[in-house]
Design goal:
disordered C terminus; binds adenosine-5'-triphosphate; ABC_transporter-like_CS; 2 domains; ABC transporter domain-containing protein; Rossmann fold; ATP hydrolysis activity
Length: 364
């Protein structure tokens, strides 16, 4: 088993990526004007999304997922780093705010479809507005109407629902309209921040299938933000795990979620209902971790403060076959122990280490 360290650029994708995030950081000042307190919500994020690819970003509440989405969508100003869309650094191109060109390239779909639709307007209004702001100019009324109906059909809704008000639609239908509105501008990238978490379980799958269809048929790239690992496995080509504002593991979804190498990823996976791992979920441990993530600026798994974890940032290690682009950033990773299961499973951690429980559960 080779013990290889990899750099971000070693994770190769063919062609110019749809979205490339390089060294993105975000620090929020806390307290008043003269306070020096701050919270580091993001640190050194490198993430690449190829054309026609869906990448899931998973992590606990407070790990920084929404801050990353808001920075990439230019709703929040990053403290450092670069954001490239189709190879162009949009932070340099549009220095002060997102331009119309940027909004045409990248659209966001939020968690709450109702919150983003004014109840006084019909669906027709929302879609026409997006077409007018970002769409191709010079469309006749007939062409516009035809495009509106096409958008409704694309997202699986009846064209006559263009006359409906938001309250007349179900949550799933409203989320489809939100997606249609994003599609109206013909974006290259959609950032979907927990797009199904407020929907009934029965309609979630329909929205996920719609996102899949848009990738497969229109080549749209997506950053899918979720805390639901099962949906990440179902939808995303690759999954990236965010922990305390940093990406700690990334790989092809099926591989990463079957063989998580970082103790935090192992803990997340252990919480997914799976009859094969009955009894492995420890809610108390998970609640402790959540608290640690919210409070700590360090890796909550560092345990003994004398360990290397608390003093040095870990480098990336390749996990398994180099072709699967699966890496982990953790001092505790033992590549030579990774074959056939959890990377950390056969090399015990010190009993005092907070990750020990997760390791025992994962290898049980
Ligand atoms: N405007 C803000 N001011 C100060 N701190 C912030 C602000 N926005 C986010 N944070 C902090 O940044 C960290 C990351 O928050 P963020 O909302 O990005 O996490 P998240 O993973 O998206 O969580 P959730 O799933 O609950 O939305 C948290 O510690 C949060 O308290």
């Amino acid at each position: 088993m080779s013990h290889s360290l990899i750099t971000p650029s070693a994770v190769s994708h063919t062609g110019t990526p749809a979205l490339e995030i390089r060294g993105l950081g975000k620090t929020f000042p806390l307290g008043g004007l003269f306070s020096r307190d701050s919270v580091r919500a993001l640190h050194g994020i490198d993430l690449t999304i190829g054309k026609g690819e869906i990448v899931a970003l998973v992590g606990e509440s407070g790990s920084g997922k929404s801050t990353l989405a808001r920075c990439v969508a230019r709703l929040e100003k990053p403290s450092s780093g670069e954001i490239l869309i189709d190879g162009v650094d949009v932070l340099k191109r549009d220095r002060f705010q997102a331009s119309r060109a940027f909004r045409s390239q990248l659209q966001m779909v939020f968690q709450d479809p109702f919150g983003s639709l004014n109840p006084a307007h019909r669906m027709d209004h929302f879609l026409r507005r997006s077409l007018a702001i970002h769409g191709k100019s010079g469309r006749s009324e007939r062409e516009t109407q035809s495009r509106l109906e096409e958008l409704m059909t694309t997202v699986g809704l009846q064209a006559d629902m263009l006359n409906s008000y938001p309250h007349e639609l179900s949550g799933g239908q409203r989320q489809r309209v939100a997606i249609a509105r994003a599609l109206a501008v013909e974006p290259q990238v959609i950032l979907a921040d927990e797009p199904t978490s407020m929907l009934d379980v029965s309609v979630r799958i329909g929205v996920l299938n719609l996102m899949r269809k848009l990738r497969d048929e229109q080549g749209i790239s997506m950053l899918y933000i979720t805390h639901d690992l099962a949906s990440a496995r179902y939808l995303a080509d690759r999954t990236a795990v965010m922990f305390a504002g940093e990406l700690v593991e990334e790989g092809e979804s099926l591989d990463l979620l079957a063989n998580p190498a970082h103790p935090y990823a192992q803990l997340l996976v252990s919480a997914v209902p799976d009859p094969a791992r009955a009894g492995s979920y420890d809610p108390v441990r998970r609640a402790e971790l959540r608290k640690a993530v919210m409070a700590s600026q360090h890796c909550a798994f560092h345990g003994d403060p004398n360990q290397v974890c608390s003093s040095e940032k870990p480098v990336r290690h390749q996990v398994g076959d180099p072709d699967n682009h699966h890496w982990v950033r953790c001092h505790l990773y033992r590549p030579w122990a990774a074959a056939g299961g959890h990377a950390l499973a056969s090399e015990p951690l010190p009993p005092s280490h907070p990750a020990s429980n997760a390791q025992e559960e994962a290898s049980a």
